[in-house]
Amino acid sequence: MRVLRAPARVLSSTALTRRRRVGIIGFGAVGQYLARTVQTDPVCSQKLELAFVCEPMDARAVRADKSIPAECALDDLGDFASKGADLIVEVAHPSISERYGAAFLKHADYLVASVTTFADRKTESDMLAAAKSGAGHGIYIPAGALWGARDIQNMAFRGNLRGLTVTMKKAPHHLKLLPPLSDRLAEVVASGASGETVLYEGPCRGLAPFAPNNTNTIAAAALAAHNLGMDGTIGRLVCDPSLQAHIVEASCPLLHSDLPAHTTPLAPACPL
Ligand SMILES: NC(=O)c1ccc[n+]([C@@H]2O[C@H](COP(=O)([O-])OP(=O)(O)OC[C@H]3O[C@@H](n4cnc5c(N)ncnc54)[C@H](O)[C@@H]3O)[C@@H](O)[C@H]2O)c1
User: Would you say the pTM of this structure is higher than 0.85?
Assistant: First the structure.
């Protein structure tokens, strides 16, 4: 999903024929999957090629992996521009966008997986300003487990969206939280509570910094609902020890309708 709707760019004939160069930041589960897919998937490898792979915590991890061509290993992320990526994909940590997001957008399109980074006001405004700056590069957000993200975005563009509440329900052992939310979770677990417990209910901006890995879907919803944004979109984080899957519920009251639109997709829960 593209965050700002901008006129389609006219591509030069060179841009239409050559493969798009992809830079990947983060070499964990998703980063390794993407690097492999770009190189080996028959459809992707026709359209894409690796520009770089950067593991910000340990550059040796990329160099040690023989499936990554040596010229694609990027040791210092500050040198990203030298690799000529058309698309930079962050699959590492929200801090990457805080530090480099606006700079990436001067050179390339930018796909942000750690969507919770937009809860930081400066990061959000710097990246949106860079995307509007005329360099012609866009911010892309994975819809993740949020079915209907484009529908929410379209309703926001049409002015029909009056509100949005997104609830994420997970088993306690699938939650990776920071204080004070982690303290609240510890209390709930220690009490032996069964059934659903609401850990947080309020603006997405107040939730994302304390659940940066678990609320990317809520943050993506807040960006899709751009008339409401991080402050107007309500996030609910619920733990339930009986859950075998992650549940995402999105509910939005619409203009000219008493019935809210409602979706409830289930996402398989992989063991952490
Ligand atoms: N939007 C979505 O739907 C969605 C889906 C999956 C993952 N994600 C996000 O993508 C990111 C990567 O997910 P993953 O499953 O590959 O995680 P992972 O833990 O397997 O890998 C994370 C990578 O980032 C690096 N990293 C960790 N902390 C860092 C820091 N402070 N600074 C720089 N690099 C750091 C690690 O060394 C590792 O290479 C996470 O932020 C995750 O929340 C988003």
Answer: yes
Kindly give the number of the ligand 1 atom that is closest to the alpha carbon of 94: 41
Q: How far is the CA of 22 from the centre of ligand 1 (A)?
A: 17
Domains for the chain: give ranges and CATH numbers. 13-140 (3.40.50.720), 149-268 (3.30.360.10)
- 20-25 sheet: strands from edge to edge: 48-54, 20-25, 87-90, 109-112, 139-140
Write the pLDDT tens digit of every residue in 115-142.
999 999 999 999 999 999 988 999 999 9
Give every residue of the chain whose pLDDT is below 70, as ranges: 4-16, 254-272
Question: For position 98, what pLDDT does the model report?
Answer: 98
Q: Is the minimum distance from the CB of 108 to ligand 1 under 6 angstroms? A: no
Angle at the Cα of 135 from the Cα atoms of 132 and 136, rounded to 5 degrees = 75
Residue whose CA is at the smallest distance from ligand 1 atom 25:
92
- C-alpha to C-alpha distance for 97 and 112, rounded to whole angstroms: 8
Who contacts 3 (Cβ-Cβ below 8 Å, separation ≥6)? Answer: 128, 131, 138, 139, 140, 141, 223, 226
In this prediction, residue 17 carries a pLDDT of 79
